[in-house]
Design a protein that fits this description.
207 residues; alpha/beta; Rossmann fold; 8-stranded mixed sheet; 12 strands; 30% strand; globular; binds cytidine-5'-triphosphate
Length: 207
């Protein structure tokens, strides 16, 4: 099966030396890529900057910004049978890029941000994707209810929701505990190494 995975953070440039980003390590997406290749799938990993090694046997396209990730996903997604959107895509990007390094002036600086395009939210309608679609949700409250809203709004088959208010799981940690929110049910995947969750998710795909 052909599988696309987005992973890592994005970097939204402000000027030649500065950018906005987040604490995503990319570990969950890379673990899924590794598990999928071992299960015999053909994997394309589209990733923002991380310090991780690309798993052997995985096709890899590095990207920086949310806009770049959108373009790469739009190009390759129609050829895929399943997709896992683990990337922590920036929701906002600077309204303008300054080609010169911004000098400090005054005591206050206001940075104007505009919304990025929702890549996962564009998969069904804009990109015409008909395969198995998995989104990830980072929540601090009402985990299951918020995840179910995302499942419906973005046309996913599954949302993997984790509680980012806990420091022992999720962002930048080795382990994850997650609610697996399907259209007809919810399962709790108890705290375990990210690789175990990755293998569990890949095992749902079949051949
Ligand atoms: N996502 C994406 N493109 C974006 C934003 C998010 O593909 N521009 C994907 C992420 O990869 C993830 C899911 O959408 O699979 C997260 O959805 P989102 O609505 O952004 O949820 P949160 O990040 O949890 O943020 P919020 O609750 O603030 O909406």
């Amino acid at each position: 099966m052909k599988i696309l995975i987005t992973a890592g953070p994005t970097r939204e440039a402000i000027d030649p030396v500065r950018f906005l980003t987040n604490r995503s390590s990319g570990k969950m997406g890379y673990a899924i890529a590794d598990a999928a290749v071992h299960a015999g799938h053909q994997v394309l990993l589209v990733s923002g900057p991380t310090s991780l090694d690309v798993p052997a046997g995985v096709d890899f396209i590095p990207v920086e910004s949310a806009a770049e990730m959108y373009e790469v996903v739009a190009r390759y997604l129609p050829k895929m049978s399943a997709a896992f959107f683990t990337a922590a895509v920036a929701d906002f990007t600077p309204a303008g890029f300054s080609s010169q390094k911004i000098k400090k002036s005054g005591e206050k600086m206001i940075l104007e941000l505009i919304k990025t395009r929702d890549i996962l939210g564009s998969a069904r309608q804009m990109m015409g994707f008909g395969g198995f679609l998995v989104g990830f949700a980072a929540e601090t409250e009402n985990l299951e209810a918020n995840a179910r809203m995302k499942l419906e709004a973005k046309g996913c088959d599954l949302i993997v929701a984790n509680d980012v208010s806990r420091s022992d799981i999720g962002f930048d940690s080795e382990e994850n505990e997650a609610f697996l929110v399907f259209k007809d049910r919810t399962e709790l995947f108890k705290k375990a190494p990210k690789h175990d969750l990755a293998m569990h998710l890949v095992s749902m795909l079949g051949e």
